[in-house]
TrEMBL record:
Pfam families: Fer4_11 (PF13247). It comes from Candidatus Aveggerthella stercoripullorum. The keyword Metal-binding applies. This is 4Fe-4S dicluster domain-containing protein. Residues 7-36, 59-90, 92-121 form the 4Fe-4S ferredoxin-type domain.
Length: 189
């Protein structure tokens, strides 16, 4: 077991109701400016969000909350021309130094999850930080704390006794788009 944390999240799509409390909480609590979004929702079982699929009585409506996957091998950081997008050595969280960012958007284009988002107020890229300042204080990220369905679980993937590690072992959590080769730290059940 590494002495450094490897922060990750498990999102239980069986519990997610698509309410977008995570999206709103993130936007407001992190004061994400303009049209930038650090979280968004996708349909898990169709092309249109909030439109069920199937034929009555066998219809389904399921959601995949999306955020930065804080990858072990982040494409956004590898392709950032200025080094603004980087992986924090202490926490492993992928961050953007907005003082260095030139707002070219290349990180968003190369990210298989489309996680970086243009801050159209300050004309730089922005993205989910896993609320690392809160985490360092022992407080959950805003999206986890606000989820009314308890569909998001956050913790140290290097700690086999953490709730996220136990959930992954018990439920065989899966990464989204593992074929991208980035080794994401967000898993879905």
């Amino acid at each position: 077991m590494s002495d450094k944390p490897r922060y990750g999240m498990v999102i239980d799509t069986r519990h997610c109701v698509g309410c977008q409390t995570c999206t709103v909480s993130c936007k407001i609590s992190n004061e994400v400016p303009g049209n930038a979004q650090w979280n968004h929702m996708e349909s898990l079982d169709g092309d249109v969000l909030y439109q069920s699929t199937g034929t009555f009585p066998a219809t389904t409506l399921a959601f995949r909350p999306m955020l930065c996957n804080h990858c072990e091998d982040p494409a956004c950081a590898h392709n950032c021309p200025t080094g603004a997008m980087h992986k924090d050595e202490e926490t492993g969280v992928v961050l953007v130094d907005q003082g260095v960012c030139i707002g070219c958007g290349y990180c968003e284009w190369t990210c298989p999850y489309g996680a970086p988002s243009m801050d159209d107020v300050n004309h730089v890229m922005s993205k989910c930080t896993f609320c690392i300042d809160r985490v360092k204080e022992g407080i959950e990220p805003f999206c986890v704390a606000s989820c009314p369905a308890n569909a998001r679980i956050f913790g140290d993937l290097n700690d086999p006794e953490s709730e996220v590690s136990k959930l992954l072992r018990a439920n065989h959590g899966q990464q989204y788009k593992p074929e991208a080769g980035t080794s994401p730290n967000v898993y879905y059940i």
